[in-house]
Write a structure and sequence with these properties.
The chain has about 400 residues and is an alpha+beta fold. It is about 15% helix and about 20% strand.
Length: about 400
Amino acid sequence: MPFFKTTGEPLRSQICVCLSDFRCQPGRRAPFALRTPRPVRSNQPVPASTLRALSFTIPGWLTVPTRRNLSISHSHAPLRRAPLSGNLLIGPIPVTNFSQPAPRLQTWKLTLAYDGTEFRGWQVQPGEATVQGELQTALGRITGESPLPQGSGRTDAGVHALAQVASFALQAPIPPENLLRALNRTLPPSIRILEARPAPSAFHARHSAVAKTYEYRVFREALCPPFLARYVYACPWPMDVEAMQRSARLFEGEHDFSSFAAADPGPASRGIDAEAEPDPRPLPRPEFQVEPPTPSTVRRVFSSTWEQRPSEAGDLLVYRVRGNGFLHHMVRNLVGTMLDVGRGRLQVGEIPGILAARSRSAAGPTAPARGLFLHSVEYDGQDFIDKPK
């Protein structure tokens, strides 16, 4: 900063700041427009007309006029351009306010399809390729953030999806179309993002879902084409489709599907997964010793039906089931049981007894994962109904 003196007094010592004292980044203008090749000393008062001309305006702040009774060291070199900014006050004046609010978290809703053959399911697992893990890695590479996407359901290894839904939150301000394009360029070809859009902060892909639809595809021909084998269960033997249709109708409504939940050890495999609802029984009184409540295995199935669907490779027998939630392996166990009905190993009249038994051993085998597809997920409001594109 220059030193000031009153008019008529000799200037004993002063410093004239030149542009060479400032280091500016490329593309940015220096804070002062006065330039001089070297400091110049002067004992002459600065004329009032010159002082009036040396008024600098600070953008966004204030205008500081020079005082008529002050003198400032000046250069004999003429001004090369109009002054940009500066001040004649001794104290520092901030010209930029760097205090900015933190970016707000934006909830995102993705609709994606994937071929589950090469993945160990949806949920991330150490050292394994999973859909959730691939999606989290791609988001980290694109935005520098690594949120864990929450899916509408945890599909098993080998299970496919036509319109899975995932939700997560990001701070990065990125347009939806850019996020969609960047994810599809980063993810492996077996995962495609169908839609990316902002969602309300309270939206959660799993907790906000009101219904889901699954499809299971059975190939009826004697020879299954190799390009279709990854996506169907080949069953060339004769089957009574009418009996299978009647048995499917018996699963509609609200039932305890314990007989059709996975029987593996571990809570996630016994139907007690993230989709399981809390036990509706009231909490016990403290003075009684009872077993802790367990998640409910009761689910409501809105529709359950078989349909024959022709294809170029041959006839497909497709089972479609829509419900408010599904237990682990539930759809595959339903299909395995109904295939036994179609082959004559079980009778349609045995289905109510299997439901009432609440035992996995009472139902039929588990159908292979490769024929199962998560078809669609539904949410409250028309804007949150996601179906295959």
